[in-house]
Amino acid sequence: MTGGHENTIEINRALARAASETGIAMGLGSQRAGLELDDERVLESYTVVRDAAPDAFIYGNLGAAQLREYDIETVERAVEMIEADTLAVHLNFLQEAAQPEGDVDGRDCLAAIEHVCECLSVPIIVKETGNGISGETAQKLTAAGVDAIDVAGKGGTTWSGIEAYRAAAANAPRQQRIGTLFREWGIPTAASTIECVAEHECVIASGGVRTGLDVAKAIALGALAGGLAKPFLKPATEGPEAVIERVEDLIAELQTAMFITGSGTIEDLQQTEYVLQGKTREYVDQRPL
Questions:
Q1: Is 140 among the annotated ligand-binding positions?
Q2: Which segments constitute the FMN-dependent dehydrogenase domain (predicted)?
Q3: 157 labelled as ligand-binding?
Q4: pLDDT tops 80 at residue 289
């Protein structure tokens, strides 16, 4: 979720302890600051995670644009920083386009992803940041050798909208207009999940996922897991016990959905029947799958 500022140390400590206690995975925010800034408190905002959760499944995070700039040794430093079990590579091109200081050079990112897939010591997850991943992109990522795809679709936090506020504060009216104009851009999470599972065997559904029932719906669409961020933010400011309670709520909600659909396993839930309605059905019907 976060990292790169000393104010996030206690948030990450609480999240990590809860992840360790409940057996769920935890992903960090971009580790670019930890690699590039000579600041012990910034570094601690990342390293605290492994210190607090020595046995948890932790994944690191770098942007696709950074992969073009870093050699494999530097990327390995991000892995070693937190003893990561896997590395997430995030795609945030729309967010960058809406930033006054944004990097809008997307050339060679796919080649850079393929290179780290071949050379890095841990598996690679490629994730969007709120705009979803199409079937065509999933097909390219699968060919590049990524181990998992996190759709991070439209329906959750709109980073384009957030950047519009930042641009307004920075007196950058053009980026403000772009951020506002594209705040509704993207593939809805459910539709993106359907497209991606047709191309890759390991798909994570995130983007507006708020409950265990949402996770169950994503799994019914073919995902192997669901990812959440916002529901954990407030509990994380209160401490690990509050996060653990929220996780236990989610587990109970997921188990209830499995029980009432007769799904004894995640594999069973993936095979359960579902119905698409409204705009989701309209969207999927218009896409050639």
A1: no
A2: 109-272
A3: yes
A4: no
State the total domains in the chain: 1
Residue 160 labeled ligand binder: no
Residue 54, classed as helix, strand or coil, is coil
209 has binding-site annotation: yes
Distance CA 35, CA 51 (A): 18
Q: Is residue 174 part of a domain?
A: no
**Does the annotation place 206 within a ligand binding site?**
no
Whether residue 171 is contained in a domain is answered as no
Would you say 13 is a known binding-site residue?
Answer: no
Alpha-carbon gap, residue 4 to 263, rounded angstroms: 40
In angstroms and rounded to an integer, the radius of gyration of the C-alpha atoms of the chain is 19
Report the CATH number that the domain containing residue 113 is assigned in CATH: 3.20.20.70
Residue 95 marked as a ligand binder: yes
- Which tens digit of pLDDT belongs to each residue from 42-70? 999 999 999 999 999 999 999 999 999 99
Q: Does 121 count as an annotated binding residue?
A: no
* Cα(211)–Cα(217) distance, integer angstroms: 10
Residues forming a β-bridge with 86:
59
Q: Is residue 143 part of a domain?
A: yes
Segment 139-161 mean pLDDT:
96
Q: Which domain holds residue 251?
A: 6-157+187-286
